[in-house]
Amino acid sequence: MSQLLLGKAAIVTGGSRGLGAEIAVQLAKHGANVLISYNKAQEEAEKVAQTIRQLGQQAVIVQGGSMDRETPTRIVQTAVENYGKIDIIINNAGVGDDCLLKDISHDFWDLVYDTNVRMPAFLLKAALPFLGLAPRIVNISSIAARAAYEATSVYSSSKAALEGLTRSWAIELGHKYNATINCVNPGPIATDMMAEAHPNAMDFWNAKVKETPASPRMGTVDDVTQIVIFLCEDRSRWCTGSVINANGGLVPV
């Protein structure tokens, strides 16, 4: 196992399943202690935490839904109580349900924007007094932020907003906190959550991924996680305010 992140304290939101779970485990494999936040999947979160502990690193889990405005503070307080500082934040938790414009409700809008925009912003705000010497913030976006798909106006705009926050935070926090803030832009990933998608959605993506320049296939969690881990290491110190293409070139800009 690499020790490039030895002694680092990391927060991974939405770390109980899919990409978030793999990121949490890989951070531990590189030496970091990890806090995993989850909404409803407590059993899955505990399994990820147990895997991390078996790797010799510390792991704690925290329940917190994105609609609960106390969640960011609770996550940060738990991290500081256990690790004394925060070196890495992976804003991975997200909501991506499709919804046509004619069907958008205020409740749906609030759910998507609270999860994909407000939660990352207020989590980082709460963490500012406790950041380590060279903090790394990685926000998980989506190709939907830059590509046009039907019924994704709320989701797409929320991810575009997250990318805008990334660029602003890089300027605002770079000198004051010695921080780098970057965004990773995945395409469709073969996870259990993708497998649970509507059959029509799966048919669309199975056809779409054949256009992927890097390889005519769906991405894997490892494809994306390796990029995220790099952005958490000192080797990425000269990269900030960037949106990193992690979709095999399916949406290259």
Automatic annotation (TrEMBL):
PROSITE patterns: ADH_SHORT (PS00061). Its EC number is 1.1.1.100. Keywords: NADP, Oxidoreductase. One of its GO terms (molecular function) is 3-oxoacyl-[acyl-carrier-protein] reductase (NADPH) activity. InterPro entries: KR_dom (IPR057326), NAD(P)-bd_dom_sf (IPR036291), Sc_DH/Rdtase_CS (IPR020904), SDR (IPR050259), SDR_fam (IPR002347). Residues 8-192 form the Ketoreductase domain. Belongs to the short-chain dehydrogenases/reductases (SDR) family. This is 3-oxoacyl-[acyl-carrier-protein] reductase.
